[in-house]
Fold these 3 entries.
Entry 1:
Amino acid sequence: MNHIQKLLFITALLTSSVAFGQITEDPDDRRGQGKDPLRTQTPEGRPLPFGQRLRFGGGITGFRFGNPFSLGVSPVIAYQASERMIVGVGGSYTYTRYKPGYIYPTQGVTINQYGARGFVMYEFIPSILANLYLHGELQTNTYQQKVDQVVAAYTGTIAAPFLGLTYMQPISRRFGVNITALYNLNYKANDPISYQVYGGSPFLLRLSFF
């Protein structure tokens, strides 16, 4: 594993460690009263300060060993806008390396992918199934492909809206484990950048922590 791969692996572990570091009990927790903690208010009904509504976390994406080797990180900052709505922004970086012989007979290929996203999550049926959210998201991704021994690099940028669902398993008021299933509304199977960035499918599955 070269230095870049080691650095990315350490960064991914640190991202997860920061996320898990938020698993703490809230001082105003209502569980002693047999109720779940409020997300935007204290038990006395006072609005929580801005900082106490923030969630920090992220996840590891595109993790593959072998040929190709791939590893990505995706930090997230989210805000509990109301008891049922979360809004947030996130970034992503994915490194992928194909050894010679996988794409070209004698040349390897390196792909760097940078992304940003904004999202809204709304808990729409809490009385039937709590912690299930409608999830809307807008992503933009820049894709750079570099072939060994070739000076020029191929670069493209693509943006797409996603729509789907997220199920959150709360661990504390400000932290949870999230499973997200989204559909790319702008996916184009015949577009090479769309194929490379989104892995040849309009569906996106994600595991994240915030």
Entry 2:
Amino acid sequence: MVFGVILAGGIGSRMGNVEKPKQYLKVGDKPIIIHTIEKFIVHDAFAKLIVLCPKPWVENTKKLVDKYLGEMASQVVVLEGGSSRNETIMNSIRYIESEYGLDDDTLIVTHDSVRPFLTYRIIEENIKYGIKYGAVDTVIPATDTIVESQGGDVISSVPDRSKMYQGQTPQTFKAKKLKDLYESLTDDEKEILTDASKIFVIKGEKVYLVQGEVFNIKITYPYDLRVAESLIQDQKKK
């Protein structure tokens, strides 16, 4: 079975002084999180879409899903997220295991709630190659030179840009394998995690690449909201 897992656990501190987490801000005529859910809900491969958000926002999220998705709202379950990104993903896996069972073929397509411009093609390839390889990450080639600084004051190295990629989401995994690898990590290893793909890398497992899109942006800063609004308006003209 294939499940969509939409990660909405952040509070959006980098967005500045706003009254709500950034995933609930409106772009166009809908909250960002609804735009994102809609990209998943049109794909018939998913047994369920699991949305994970901060505890104080669970009921509000359920109301938004009902308001904007109508009959399709039954395909969505809203759960409380965890204390970190990976603990939030583990919450989704625990739900799947309790409600549907977990086997070697159970697949989760995890995605940032504040990346509302992913395409059907990106989702389709995540599922296809997730099934084939067990772990895939969506990336785009780095266009800027990447500079490494160990201390934050001088350049330590300048990696070969042709080998550098910028990570996006979705990230797709065989859920049981991800759970087993995560539970085998030491506390120190968990401390250095940035996302779920790194769990596989730490354990020497291969993570295959899916080509993303430049416009598959993550809405993080106030400027990103203006860019997103422009993209939404441009889509309406087509």
Entry 3:
Amino acid sequence: MSANKSSKLNRLLSSQPSGVVLCSSWLVEHGYSLDLQQRYKKSQWFESIGAGALIRYGDQVDYLGGVYAMQTQLELSLHPGGKTALGLQGKAHYLELSPKHAQLFGAQGEHVPLWFKKQDWSVNVKCTLSNFLPPEVGLTELSYKQFTVKVSNPARAIMECLYLAPKSQSLLEVYELMEGLNNLRPASVQQLLEVCSSIKVKRLFLYMADKANHDWVQYLDLNRVNLGSGKRAIVSNGVYITKYQITVPKELESME
């Protein structure tokens, strides 16, 4: 390998952390042609993990290394959300230490790369695409291994849980998670409530925050939050909560 090509390879190796995926299209944009990528693979500097995706040869890469690539190289809004985001930030202590599932959220219309969907990440990764919250609001940087990824902050994560409830997320479990969030920043919660387009999510969020007696609730200005009109039956045969005009499970309302 010539000195020029060697320094180019060294630049790549030193600029990108280990433990992450490198997208072939991104490499091409940065001067690493498909032909050059092939030579790197033949020389065992890199190996393929699917069409359009490489990792360092022998590197241990998990789904967050794939998320890093989607966020920083493909500029997608896909991010760990819901229970997964809470677990990554230590806000879900009773959840299993080695989760078998990971929940990602992204904007409606985004395309999850085939290499990410087909890769065996040793966890079942589910991607939910929705615009009920703007993709840029309520995210925080999480340091992981040698890189950082954007994940939902706790307030957004709870709203994402509520978006999935009650069909694919237990409301009782969400309430247990909400109980632990006694130090949310009112300004962050206020912003999320104002931009959230799901009436169901906003009413359930406020109902649970009220029920948990969190101090930060008193600092919210609900006059700036559109809570819609009319009743919402979240479940059938539940308990009607007059203040928020929602019907919730009897087991949830009876929780201390």
